[in-house]
Specification:
The protein has helices at about 65-70, 115-120, 130-140, 175-180, 210-215, and strands spanning about 1-5, 10, 30-35, 35-40, 60-65, 75, 85, 110-115, 125-130, 150, 170, 190-195, 220-225, 235-240, 250, 255-259. The chain is an alpha/beta fold. Helix 4 (about 175-180) packs parallel to helix 5 (about 210-215).
Length: about 260
Amino acid sequence: MLRFVSSSLAVASLLVIGSTASADPKLNSHGFAVWSRVVSLAHEFNPANPIFPGDPETTVSLWATVPVDGYRVEQVSLGNHTGTHMNAPCHFVDGAKCLDELPPEMFIRPLVVIDVRERVLENPDFQLTKQDIKDWEAINGRIPPGAIVTIFTGFGDQYFEPSYFDIAPGFAGLTAKWLMKPVCQGGRGAAGLASDTFGADATTDVDYSATYETLLAGGVNLENLTNLELVHPQGDTVVFLPARLQGSGFQTNVIALVR
């Protein structure tokens, strides 16, 4: 349920259950959590978006126009894992849930952003470890259950460069497995992983194990994000709404509700 209160977007506090106390957004007198602004975390989708090697090309053409037909319609051809998009579990796991089978609560989550921009200057394809995340938690607080855990590399600035797919850091496979493990089993109970690169995996991970472990656990991946410098390490909420396609993923408009 959404309401606008004093020109700010307000969402029922139910949606932020699991946030750490230090990161909880303010509540108004009606018990709604209020955010100060909304930030787009998605690249504009058009034929100029980079295409992962081997994926279909993107084309957008006018099918009907207002002067001729009285309405405008475009014909779009694309691969469903191009641009800012979401991976459903069935992307890597046969028989797992596809987009249309995911519950609606999957698409509104606590946002966690781990900034590694300085580290990648020396090691641009490193793999983020469990200890790295625990060190981050010592400063920023424990990752809340149900979060989308995001690695902020700065590589999103190269999104339209020919070298975009050449090299990137990411989560180690064992790190992803631990993040997705339920809290009662010693993990963090994350809902998924995200990145401002073309995937959760470092280019040194040729088996895409971070993505696999995330999807195997029933989680999701958000890829090719942008504007992560405009959100907090913790305490914001991410909303991502792909089409309910009977498929493994789709382009996604991702927004952050900033506390």
